[in-house]
């Protein structure tokens, strides 16, 4: 049903270069993964505003903070597992607490990293970053949206965490200019159940909506790119269906599901969180892993049927 | 050599800072006197002579920056900022009090003149590297100072930062190591050795200068003579933890403890005695 696939890291680097052309204050950092995160492309165009700090992620976060105190808009990138888990204290103390203008753009989040296995499959980053005051948390769904996220967060003052996966992702959005921090998107209206997804899972949620439609179940499908601050209005609309399914390529603890539960804590709504159920990942092909952990349209549809 | 008058003024300021360290920690009922007193002379030299800064314009873009990486020693920094005119000296009486702005560890969003929030050891040098890099990108001539604890050097990130500073040729970065020899659990060399310290920093590509961190003339001369040779500089300042208060000097127990009323009175009277001796 989706015509083409594009890579969000490619979108990230093109958007960074475009931004770098417009704004001389943009500085990009990486920690020896600049080829994988694709920030190297920015470094090639703007060698004076790109620094590879080597394999020293916490140091990178501190350097980002120092640059930001001097008026720079800093994009710091590495894999999600290193960007958050390894640097939590540096981010907490030197970026979130002083509320500095640092954008942590983390790639290779989730189990779909594949073969590298659990050590590289970051499943708790949303929970960690969500817990930090001042931190905005974003998981775009496709390359179009990623191209909008980059200038949008550069325009906004404050720390942001953006998580993207490794794989090419179906193109969901055809036009630019939609993304706004804190806004949720009802992609399909419906009365029977609401499926709310973020990041890589939004495409699956859309597919699940189609499957259910064929069966006569009218599902609302919501894309929630900003996990913090959450769009309460959209969540409240979703809660009117009485049933919410949340979908994220992340542990079910502390991520999108919890953010939504918090937003409607006084509304009587059945909730089911689809995500990784408190286990570490393992090596395998991305698609097989997503299947194994139930991160598929078929599983979302199954859960919906059970809830109705 | 610096004028006698200047040296005397700074000695007097350092004593004022020490008195406020004792006063503010006593009133707060908690805090870190030992490591605050050991940096009082260095802080006095920085804020009252060496650093280019403007208390009327704390965010002045061309100012020299200071990152107090050993953030627990902030009573000394707060005193220097207040005495410089960043905020009323009377505020020092409200250290660590609910609803007041002088937090137990420095907060750049609350205190004018604080360039970076610190408190978790090991991060400050990285931040200073970022500030120094920004200075290079913008072709500005400000310098970045960072004060490190000797126990703090046991944190691995310090060495990541040290490596990056020399790699990026940050000769606008000056670290000061407060080598007071003590951390919380005991002497640094017993807990986890950091010697040979000068040798280690030299191996990381830094200029290393070793000084007496309580000798005002020597501190001023050292700052004055730093060369811009494409390398960051570290001043290994040999100091005494608790310096200036007889019963705090070299003692572990006053790392993070407020003085009792009697101890407070004794400390203040010792410091006042020293002040009187300056005048004769
Ligand atoms: C990461 C971290 N671990 C532990 C502490 C608790 N702590 C506060 S001060 C201190 C000892 C610091 O020793 P040193 O760096 O030598 O400072 P100084 O003796 O000059 O006060 C410790 C362990 C901390 N603030 N940060």
Word description of this protein:
The complex is a heterodimer of chains A (308) and B (280). Chain A contains 13 helices and 14 strands. The longest helix of chain A has 15 residues, at 8-22. In chain A, the strands form 3 sheets. Chain A has a 7-stranded mixed β-sheet, sandwiched between helices. Chain A is an alpha/beta fold. Chain B contains 10 helices and 5 strands, in the order H-H-H-E-H-H-E-H-E-H-H-E-H-E-H. Chain B has a 5-stranded parallel β-sheet with strand order 1-2-3-5-4, sandwiched between helices. In chain B, strand 4, helix 9 and strand 5 form a beta-alpha-beta unit. Chain B is globular and about 50 Å long. The model of chain B has no long low-confidence stretch (mean pLDDT 97). The structure holds thiamine diphosphate. The site of thiamine diphosphate (TPP) has 21 residues of chain B, from helix 2.
Determine the structural class of chain A based on helices, strands and strand pairing: alpha/beta
Helix count, DSSP H or I runs of 4 or more residues of chain A: 13
Radius of gyration of chain B using CA atoms only = 18 Å
Secondary-structure element series of chain A? EHEHHEHEHHEHEHEEEEHEEHEHEHH
The major β-sheet of chain A equals:
7 strands, mixed
Rounded to the nearest angstrom, the radius of gyration of chain A is 18 Å
Count of individual helical segments of chain B: 10
Multimer state: heterodimer
In total, how many beta strands of chain B? 5
H/E order of the elements of chain B?
HHHEHHEHEHHEHEH
Beta content of chain B: 5-15%
Gross morphology of chain A: globular
Percentage beta strand of chain A: 15-25%
Strand order of the largest sheet of chain B: 1-2-3-5-4
Average of the residue pLDDT scores of chain B: 97
What small molecules does the structure contain?
A: thiamine diphosphate
Q: What is the residue-averaged pLDDT of chain A?
A: 97
Largest interface: A-B, 30 and 35 residues
Could you give the order of strands across the largest sheet of chain A? Answer: 3-2-4-5-7-6-12
What is the terminal-to-terminal distance of chain A?
A: 26 Å
Low-confidence stretches of chain B: none
């Amino acid at each position: 049903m989706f015509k083409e696939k594009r890579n969000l890291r490619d979108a990230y680097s093109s958007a960074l270069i475009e931004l770098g052309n417009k704004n001389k204050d943009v500085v990009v950092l990486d920690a020896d993964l600049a080829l994988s995160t694709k920030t190297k492309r920015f470094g090639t165009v703007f060698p004076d505003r790109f620094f590879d700090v080597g394999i020293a992620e916490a140091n990178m976060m501190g350097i980002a903070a120092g640059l930001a105190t001097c008026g720079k808009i800093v994009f710091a990138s590495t894999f999600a597992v290193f960007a958050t888990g390894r640097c939590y204290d540096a981010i907490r103390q030197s970026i979130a607490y002083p509320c500095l203008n640092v954008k942590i753009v983390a790639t290779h989040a989730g189990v779909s990293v594949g073969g590298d296995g659990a050590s590289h499959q970051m499943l708790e980053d949303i929970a960690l970053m969500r817990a930090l005051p001042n931190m905005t948390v974003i998981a775009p769904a496709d390359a179009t949206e990623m191209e909008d996220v980059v200038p949008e967060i550069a325009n906004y003052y404050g720390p942001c965490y953006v998580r993207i996966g490794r794989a090419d992702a179906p193109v969901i959005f055809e036009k630019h200019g939609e993304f706004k921090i804190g806004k949720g998107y009802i992609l399909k209206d419906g009365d029977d159940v609401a499926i709310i997804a973020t990041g890589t899972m939004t495409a699956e949620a859309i597919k699940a909506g189609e499957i259910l439609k064929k069966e006569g179940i009218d599902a609302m499908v919501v894309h929630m790119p900003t996990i913090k601050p959450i769009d309460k209005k959209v969540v409240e609309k979703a809660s009117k269906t009485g049933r919410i399914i949340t979908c994220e390529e992340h542990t079910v603890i502390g991520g999108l599901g919890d953010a939504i539960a918090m937003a409607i804590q006084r509304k009587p709504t059945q909730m089911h969180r689809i995500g990784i159920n408190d286990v570490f990942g393992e090596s395998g092909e991305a698609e097989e892993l997503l299947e194994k952990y139930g991160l598929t349209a078929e599983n979302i549809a199954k859960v919906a049927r059970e809830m109705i | 050599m610096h004028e006698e008058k200047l040296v005397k003024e700074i000695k007097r300021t350092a004593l004022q800072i020490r008195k406020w360290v004792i006063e503010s920690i006593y009133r707060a009922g908690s805090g870190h006197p030992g490591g605050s007193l050991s940096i009082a002379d260095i802080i006095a030299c920085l804020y009252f002579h060496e650093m280019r800064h403007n208390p009327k314009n704390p965010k002045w873009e061309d100012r020299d920056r200071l990152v107090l990486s050993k953030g627990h020693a902030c009573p000394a920094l707060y005193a220097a900022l207040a005495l410089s005119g960043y905020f009323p000296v009377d505020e020092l009486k409200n250290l660590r009090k609910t609803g007041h702005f002088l937090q137990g560890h420095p907060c750049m969003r609350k205190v004018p003149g604080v360039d970076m929030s610190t408190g978790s050891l090991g991060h400050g040098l990285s931040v200073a590297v970022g500030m120094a890099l920004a200075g290079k990108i913008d072709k500005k001539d400000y310098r970045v100072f960072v004060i490190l604890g000797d126990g703090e050097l046991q944190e691995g990130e310090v060495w990541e930062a040290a490596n990056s500073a020399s790699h990026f040729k940050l000769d606008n970065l000056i670290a000061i190591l407060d080598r007071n020899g003590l951390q919380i659990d005991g002497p640094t060399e017993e807990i986890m050795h950091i010697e040979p310290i000068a040798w280690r920093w030299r191996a990381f590509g830094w200029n290393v200068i070793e000084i007496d961190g309580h000798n005002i003339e020597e501190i001023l001369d050292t700052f004055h003579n730093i060369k811009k040779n494409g390398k960051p500089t570290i001043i290994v300042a040999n100091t005494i933890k608790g310096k200036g208060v007889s019963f705090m000097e070299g003692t572990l127990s006053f790392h993070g403890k407020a003085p009792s009323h009697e101890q407070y009175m004794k400390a203040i009277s010792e410091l006042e005695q020293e002040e009187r001796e300056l005048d004769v």
